UniProtKB/TrEMBL annotation, chains A, B, C, D:
Gene Ontology CC annotations of this record: cytosol
Signal peptide range in chain numbering: none
NCBIfam families given in the database record: purB
Protein name listed in UniProt: Adenylosuccinate lyase
Length: 435, 435, 435, 435
C-alpha cells in the first residue's frame, strides 16, 4: 500500500485496531452463543462485553505476540487484561485461530466491497451525466487507431457506463462470494464448538455461515473475489487508455482538468499531461497482479496450511485500497474531463468526407454495382483523399464510373451526419433504460 | 491445444468447419431480418439458405484468404460460390467483420461453457457419491501437514463438492457473461444496419443483444469468463493436490486407480504414481495462465483494435479444451479413487491418542485449570508422545497434575471418536440439502 | 500453437519425428559410452546405429503407447523393431525416462534459442539500417503522448536497437541456462548409470552435463528461460505500440507497408490499419503468459513429479513458435515501414515553436530571471499558443517582460533545430560503436 | 510492504530520506560536471555541497509537493531553502525529473541487489554446511511422492546449493541490468545537458551511463530485474516445499527448529508446524506476482509516459523487501533445520527392500531375461511387498523364475546400499568443486 494512492476509509478497514475490534466482536458474540447453549456460564459471556468500548492497545498486543509468537493468543491475553483473566477463561473455547482470522478477513473484504460498490455507483453517476451531456457531440469513431465512421462522445461515455455497470454486478457477486464466516473449530468438524455458535456469530455480523469449512474458509471464494477486482481494474485501464489517446497533442479531443497551480513538467511549462489516467493505467496493473497469487492460494494442503496468509496480508489491503483510489480518481477525471467538440469535428474532417466511404460502398452495391467493383471504385477515390487531402465527395462526383451508378443527389445524401446518429436514442435506451 | 489433453466434443467447437457454419448462420439470419425490414429483397435472403446443408470447404476458403488476406471476405466469396454471386450480393450488407467474428466467438464460448457446466455436473455427481460412501470413514484431519483432529473422508469429498458447486454457479455466470451477440456495424452505431437485425440474429442463436458495442463486443466480458475458468482450474488443482498427498508412500490413504497393463515407471516397476493428479496440477497452471492476457485484452484502443484477436485464437480453444479435459479426468479419478480406510486409521494412530489433545485441553480448563496451565500440561504430555510414540491417554493418567483435575473416567471419555463425527450429518445437510 | 502464427523451422523442432530422432541419438550415444565402459557389449551398442537413417513411425509408436501408456517404453519397443529385440536389449539400461525426456527437451529449447538468436540478429540489422537512414529525420519527441522537444526518427530506431541488443544477450544467457543434459538415472544418483555416460552423451550433443540432477533437470533453468522470452516479448510490444501510435490517422508519421491487394476493412476500403503491430501486441501477451507457469513448475515434489510436463508440452512449443513468428514479423515491419518525414515536421509545427519552450526557460534563468518568474513567463506565452495556435516566437517577442531579459536575436537563436540534434552522433556511437 | 516480513537494511533503501539523499547527490554531482564544462558558475556548484550533511525534511517537502503537485520541484524548492535560492539557481539545469527519478530508482535497485546477493551468499554457506554434514545420511529418493531409490540428504542440500548458486549468478546479472544512470534531458537528446554530465554523475555513483535513453531509462532492464527475482523466489518455494513435505507427520524426516516458548496452535499444543516454510511459499507468490506488471511496464508511449511509476513505487520496495526477508528466513531455517536420520531409514524400509527393484530388474536383463519378462517378474514380487509389507528379497528368493536367472548371492548383492551412494563424491565435486 502506497499512501499517495490510498483513501482513509478503505485504509481504516485494514488498520490493526479495526482488526482487533472485529476479533473482539467475533469472540464476544461466540461467548453469547455458548452461554445460550449452556456451554459456558452466562456471566463469563457478559463479562466479555465489558471491553465493548475499549480501543485495544496494538503496541501491547504486539509486545505479547513477540513473546508467544501467536497473534490470536496475544490478543486473547490482552483481552483478559481488560476483562479479567478469570472472567475471560472461556473466551475462544473450542475455537481455532482460523475461526477468528478467516471470519475477520471476510468481514474486512466485505466492508471493502461495500466501499468499492459505492465507488462504482459514483463513477456510474459521473459517466451517465457526461454521456447525456455529450449525447450528440459528433466524433469520429476509430478502429485500429484509424478513422472509421462517425459516432458521438455520448456513446463513448455510454459504453463505459455499460461496462462499469457490469462491473457493479461483478462487485456485488464478489461481495457475496466472501460474505461468509466460519466458527467450526479444529479441522472444521464442529467437534469442539456447536454449529449454532457459528450461526449466531454470522447473524450478528451480517455473514452467511460457511456450509463446510476445514478450519479455514475455502480459498476459491477469495480467488473469485480478487479475480473480480482484476476485471474491474482492467476496465479502469480501458477508460484511462481512451482518455490518454484523446489528450494526445495531435488528437486533443479531451483533456484531464488542469488546475493553474499545477506544474506539468519541470522542464516544459506548457505541457498538460494526462498524468492521472497514466497513473490509473499503472494502478490497474497493481490490482491485476493480485489475481494469480489469489488463485495459487486455493490449493491448501489437507485441512489447511498457512501459505495463503502472507499473500493475503499483502493483497487484501493492497488490491482494495488501490482499486478504491483508482475508482475515485477515475470518477474525478470523468467528472471534470475537458471535452473539445470543435477539435473532434476538425479531426473528423481531416480527410474530408472519407469517413463516409462505407455508405458510398453500400449505395453502389444497392445501385447494382458488384461488390468487387464497388469496393474498387471506393478505394480508388478514398486513397486519393488519404494521400492528397482532397474532398471525397468531389472526387466521387468527378468519377464517371461512380456517377454512372449514383446521381449527384444520391451522392450528396451519403454525406449527411444524421445518418450516423439516428440510433443513438435506441442505444441510450438500452444502456440507461431511457433515451 | 495438445491432442493428448483434449476431448472431441470440445475440440469440435473450435474446428474451422464449426466456425464457418456459425458465420453462415449469422449471415443467413441477418439476411432474413433485413428482408423483413425491406432492406434487401426477400429472394436474396431466401437464396442464402440454399447453402444450409453445405459443409464449407476450409481449404478453398484458406486459398481465397491467402489472396485477399481477410478471413471474412474470403468466407463471403466462398459462400457466393455456393449461393450464386448475384444472389449473395446483399449478404453481410452494412455489417463489419467483427459483427460476425465476435458473435461467433461468443457462441463458441457459450457452447464451451455448456460442456464445462455438464462436466462440472458429472464431477459433482461423483463427489457426492464418494462423499456418502465415505461419510463415516474416519481419517485424521491435518493442518500444516501435521495431524490435528479426526475428521472423515466423506467430509473431504463434501468440501470438494461444495467448492465445485460454487464453481458450477461461477461457470453459469461466466456463460451468461459471454452469451451476447452484436450486429451493430462499423463503430457500433447501427448506421448501416438496423438494430432489429441484431435482435433477430441473437434471438435465433440463443444470445442476448449486446446493449452497446463498438464494432467489437466489450472484452470485460471475456476477461470475466477466463477469470472464472481460472478459479475453476485452481479448484481442480486443490483436489489434485489432496489426492497426491494421500497417495504418498508414507500416507497411502488413497490412490488413483491403477490398471494392470499400465507401467508406472520404466525403471521401477512397483511404483504406482499419482500421474493423473500431477497432470491435473499442470493443466490447472495452463488454464490459469490465460487469465492475465484476457484481462490485458480489455483496454482496446478507441472503438476497437485487433490486439485481442491472436490472444483469443489461442486461449479460447486452449483454456476451454484443457479445462474440459481436466474436469473429465478429475471426475474419472474421483470415481475410481482407491480409498484405504485401514491406512487412514493406522496413520491416525501413529502417535497414539495425540489427536485428542485439544479435548483434554478443554476439559482441563472446564475443570477449573487456568488456560496457561492447561496448555502447559497438555503440551508436556503431548511432546512425550511425539518423541517416543507412547500412548497419550496413559501418559495423562500417570500425570498427577492432570489427574488432580480430571478423573480417569473423564480422561477416558475424551478418547471417544464419536465426539468428532457428531456433526457430520449437520454438515452434509448444509452441503447436500440432506444428510 | 496456431498455424497462422508459426514458421516451419521452429515448428519442425517440436514435431514428434524430431523428438524421436533426439531420443534415439541420446540412447545410441549412451550405448556407446556404456560399451566404452564395458558395461554392455560393443556389438549391442553398434547395433543401435543400424537405425541411424530411420525416420521413426510416429503412428506405430502412438499405437504402442496406447497399450503401455508410457511414451519412452513405447519408443524403445519400436526401436527394438528396427534394431532387433535381442540387439536392443541393453538400450536405456540404468536410465530413466527423464534422462531421455529432459535432455531432449533441453536440446529442443537450445535449438529454439538458436533460431530466436538468429531472428534477433535479423531484427537488429533491420533496426540499424533504418536508424542510419533516418538518423537526422526530425521528429517531435513526446512524453505522456504530448509534444515535448525535437528528436530524430533515427534515435527512435536506435533505442529499439539498443533494447533488442540487450535482448540478444538475454537470449544467449537463456540458451546457456538450458543447454544442459542429464543421464543420472533414478533419483539422480548415478547408481545405475555411470556419470561418464552423461558426459559422453552431452559432449556428443553439444550440452553441458547438469552438475546435479534429481532424475529431472532442475526447473529454475526453464523458469529463467521463459522469463527471458517474456522480456523479449515485452520489447516486441514496445516497438509495436510505437508504430501503432505513429500510424494513427492524426499522427501518421509512419505506416506498415500496405500491399495493394490487401483489404484493410470489409466495410471501409480506404483504411490502412496497423494490423501487424496490433497482432504483435497480442502475441507478446501470449509469450508473456508462459512465464508464471514456468515459475510455478520450479517447486517439484522431492526428486521429481510430473506436474511440469503438461505445462511444458504446451509452453515449450507455443512460446518459442510465437516469439519466432513475432520477431520475424517485426523484422519485416521494420524493414518495410513507410516513414513520412513531412508529416513529422507538420506535426511538430502544430503549435508553432512551442516545443522550444524549455530552451527559452533556460535562457531566461541564465539571463538572471528567477526560476519561478521564468516558468511563469514561459507558461503564459505557451498556453496562448496551445489555445490559439499562434506562433510562440512571435508571442515572446511581443512580451515586454521577456524582451526585458532576452534580445530578439537571443530569442531567435532558441528556435534553431540543430540545437536538438547536436548529440545524435554521440548517441549513435554509444549504440552502434560508430556514428 | 508488510512490516512483519521485512528487514531494516532493505527497508532503509526505500525510505524517503534515502531517496532525497540520492536525489541530492545526483543534482550536486551534476552541478560539478556542469561547472567543469563552464555551463554554470563554479561557486554555484560548490554551494550545493553546503547541504552535504543535511537530512532533508520529508514533511517539508511533502508540504511543498502538496502545493506544486510535482515531487522533484518540491525537492528542489526545499534544497534552495538550505543552499540559498540564488546559489541554487542552476541546480537541475537542463535536466528533467526523470533524470533524477530514474537514476535514483536504479541506484536503489542496485543497492537492493547488493543485499540480495549477500543474502544469497549466506544461504549458500548454510546449504553447503548442511550438505557436508549429511553427505552420507541415507534417505529414500521419491518421484511422484512415491519411494523410488535411495539417495542422501546431503545430495538434497547440494542440489539446492547448485540451484541457489545459479540464482546468485542471476542476481548479479540482474544487478548489472539496472546499474545504469541517465542524465539526458528532455526526450533524451542531451540538447540541454551535455553527455559528460551524465558520465560524471554515473562515475561518481557507481553506474554505467545508459547508452540511449528517452527521458526515461528503458524498462526492459527492470522487467529483466524483476523476472530474476521471480526465478529466485520460485527456488525459495522449491526448498520450502521440500521441507514442508519432510515435516509432515507421516514423513517426519526433518523439522523447522522449534523454540519451547512458541505456541504451535492455540487449540492443539503438541503440534510443531512448518509455519516458516509455509510462509515462504506465500512470500514466493508475492515476489513472483511482480514479474508481469514489470513486463507490462516496458511498452511506454513514445519517449515516456508515467504509467510505470505507480507500479514501481509498489513493486520496487515490495519485491526486494519480501525477497530479502525470504532469503534470510530460509537461511535461518536451513541453518537450524532438525534432521532425523533414523526416521529417514524407517521410512525407506517401510516396504522392505522394495526400493531395490530397479537393480533386480537390471540384473535379470543382464542375466539374459528379456526386458518384458524381467519387468513382469519384478512387478509381480514388488506388488506383493506393496500390498502385504513382506520382504522383497525373501520374495525374490522364493520365486523360482527369478532364481532360475539369479543366484541367491547375486540377489543379496542387489540389496547393498553402498551401490546407491558410490557417486556422491563425484556429484559433490561437481557442485562444490571438491568432494
Amino acid at each position: 500500500m502506497i499512501p499517495r494512492y490510498s483513501r482513509p476509509d478503505m485504509v481504516a478497514i485494514w488498520e490493526p485496531t479495526t482488526k482487533f475490534r472485529i476479533w473482539y466482536e467475533i469472540e464476544a458474540h461466540a461467548c453469547d452463543a455458548m452461554a445460550d447453549l449452556g456451554v459456558i456460564p452466562r456471566e463469563n459471556a457478559k463479562a466479555v462485553w465489558k471491553a465493548k468500548d475499549v480501543e485495544f492497545d496494538v503496541a501491547r498486543i504486539d509486545e505479547i505476540e513477540a513473546e508467544t509468537r501467536h497473534d490470536v493468543i496475544a490478543f486473547l491475553t490482552h483481552l483478559a487484561e481488560h476483562v479479567g483473566s478469570d472472567e475471560a477463561r472461556f473466551v475462544h473455547q473450542g475455537m481455532t485461530s482460523s475461526d477468528v482470522l478467516d471470519t475477520c478477513f471476510n468481514i474486512q473484504l466485505t466492508r471493502a466491497a461495500d466501499i468499492l460498490i459505492a465507488d462504482m455507483q459514483g463513477l456510474l453517476a459521473a459517466l451517465r451525466r457526461r454521456a447525456y451531456e455529450h449525447k450528440n457531440t459528433i466524433r469520429i469513431g476509430r478502429s485500429h487507431g484509424i478513422h472509421a465512421e462517425p459516432t458521438t462522445m455520448g456513446l463513448t461515455f455510454a459504453r463505459f457506463y455499460a461496462e462499469m455497470d457490469r462491473n457493479l454486478t461483478r462487485l456485488r457477486t464478489a461481495r457475496d462470494e466472501i460474505a461468509t464466516g466460519a466458527i467450526s473449530g479444529a479441522v472444521g468438524t464442529f467437534a469442539n464448538v456447536d454449529p449454532r455458535v457459528e450461526e449466531h456469530v454470522c447473524a450478528q455480523l451480517g455473514l452467511t455461515p460457511e456450509p463446510i469449512s476445514t478450519q479455514v474458509i475455502p480459498r476459491d471464494r477469495h480467488a473469485a473475489f480478487f479475480a473480480a477486482l482484476g476485471v474491474v481494474a482492467s476496465s479502469v485501464e480501458n477508460v484511462a487508455i481512451e482518455i490518454r489517446h484523446m489528450q494526445r497533442t495531435e488528437v486533443l479531443e479531451a483533456a484531464e482538468f488542469f488546475s493553474m497551480g499545477q506544474k506539468g513538467s519541470s522542464a516544459m511549462p506548457h505541457k498538460k499531461n494526462p498524468v492521472l489516467t497514466e497513473n490509473l493505467t499503472g494502478l490497474a496493473r497493481l490490482v491485476r497482479m493480485t489475481v494469480i497469487p489469489a488463485m495459487e492460494n486455493v490449493a491448501l494442503w489437507h485441512e489447511r496450511d498457512i501459505s495463503h496468509s502472507s499473500v493475503e496480508r499483502n493483497i487484501g489491503p493492497d488490491a482494495t485500497i488501490t482499486l478504491d483510489f483508482a475508482l475515485a480518481r477515475l470518477t474525478n477525471v470523468i467528472d471534470k474531463l475537458l471535452v473539445y467538440p470543435e477539435n473532434m469535428l476538425a479531426n473528423m474532417n481531416r480527410f474530408p468526407g472519407l469517413v463516409m466511404s462505407q455508405r458510398v460502398l453500400l449505395a453502389l452495391t444497392q445501385a447494382g454495382v458488384s461488390r468487387e467493383d464497388a469496393y474498387r471504385l471506393v478505394q480508388r477515390n478514398a486513397l486519393r483523399v488519404w494521400e492528397t487531402g482532397c474532398d471525397f465527395r468531389t472526387e466521387l462526383l468527378n468519377d464517371a464510373e461512380v456517377t454512372a451508378a449514383l446521381s449527384p443527389a444520391e451522392i450528396d445524401e451519403k454525406f449527411d451526419i444524421g445518418y450516423h446518429t439516428k440510433h443513438v436514442d435506441t442505444i441510450f435506451r438500452r444502456v440507461f433504460g431511457e433515451s
